[in-house]
């Protein structure tokens, strides 16, 4: 059970029984450490012990590229209603943020990552998230697995973050249960148009696309206003449903 050790704005991951060495002193993590307790270094500096939550995983996963943002994960969960016991087919694992969140929600996820090295990193991240029993990370192309008949469907939810997403969306009616959802993330509007066209051509219902934008607020003595730092745009999410 990996725990998070927090001192101010500093955060460290450690296993029970391990040692933490910083300029604040040396801290021995007890083998029976419990979240919610406070540990002190040999210099008397306190560290709060916390369990790993979803945002902590986003911050501490080893990254193989730009991970899906928590706000986008929230939209996927909210618009598909993914829940415990659902079967999810995911493609474009990357860092594995979405797969880990879905696994922690109780869904059983089969996720495909083309790059074998990235897939191995994703497996390590799933171990950190404690969802290896729910998330099966496979190295390979989901379309090749589908053509070979290596996937046992149907699935409740299909989530995609791949260049060939339109071709997979076209197969969604054969992959999803009645009422099942497909959710596709794309950084480019041109690909999003192709995804929408594929969903409509496949006869999927409730096709909609959202641009995900989030603005931080600044509060100071002069007043309150949206932050001028950054645009807040991450990409486009397209949702559809098998009727």
Keywords:
Vcp-like ATPase, Chain A, domain 2, alpha/beta, Rossmann fold, 15 strands, 2 domains, single chain, 28% helix, globular, 4-stranded antiparallel beta sheet, 243 residues
Kindly describe this structure:
- The protein has 243 residues and is an alpha/beta fold.
- The chain is 28% helix and 35% strand.
- Strand 1 and strand 2 form a beta hairpin.
- The radius of gyration is 21 Å and the shape is globular.
- It starts with a strand and ends with a strand.
Radius of gyration: 21 Å
- Relative helix content: 25-40%
Taken in chain order, the helices and strands follow as EEEEEEHHEHEHEHEHHEHEEEE
**Approximately what portion of the residues adopt beta-strand conformation?**
25-35%
Q: Which CATH first-tier class of the largest domain would you pick?
A: Alpha Beta
Give the overall pLDDT as a whole number: 95
What is the CATH T-level topology of the largest domain? Rossmann fold
Q: Largest sheet, order of strands side by side? A: 9-8-7-10-11-15-12
pLDDT below 50 for ≥5 consecutive residues: which ranges?
A: none
CATH H-tier superfamily of the largest domain: Vaccinia Virus protein VP39
Alpha-carbon distance between the termini?
42 Å
């Amino acid at each position: 059970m990996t725990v998070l050790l927090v001192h101010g704005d500093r955060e460290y991951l450690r296993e029970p029984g391990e040692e933490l060495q910083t300029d604040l002193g040396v801290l021995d993590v007890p083998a029976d450490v419990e979240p919610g307790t406070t540990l002190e270094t040999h210099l008397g500096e306190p560290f709060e012990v916390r369990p790993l939550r979803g945002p902590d995983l986003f911050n501490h996963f080893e990254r193989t590229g730009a991970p899906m943002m928590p706000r986008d994960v929230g939209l996927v969960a909210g618009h598909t209603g993914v829940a415990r016991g659902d079967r999810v087919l995911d493609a474009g694992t990357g860092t594995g943020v979405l797969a880990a969140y879905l696994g922690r929600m109780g869904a059983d996820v089969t996720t495909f990552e083309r790059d074998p090295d990235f897939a191995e990193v994703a497996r390590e991240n799933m171990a950190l998230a404690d969802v290896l029993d729910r998330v099966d990370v496979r190295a390979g192309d989901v379309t090749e697995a589908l053509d070979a008949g290596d996937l046992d469907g149907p699935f409740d939810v299909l989530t995609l973050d791949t260049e060939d997403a339109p071709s997979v969306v076209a197969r969604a009616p054969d992959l999803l249960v009645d009422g099942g959802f497909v959710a596709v993330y794309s950084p480019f509007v041109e690909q999003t148009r192709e995804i929408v066209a594929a969903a409509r051509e496949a006869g999927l219902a409730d096709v909609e696309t959202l641009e995900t934008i989030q603005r931080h607020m600044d509060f100071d003595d002069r007043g309150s206003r949206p932050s001028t730092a950054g645009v807040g745009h991450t990409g486009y999410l397209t949702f559809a449903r098998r009727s």
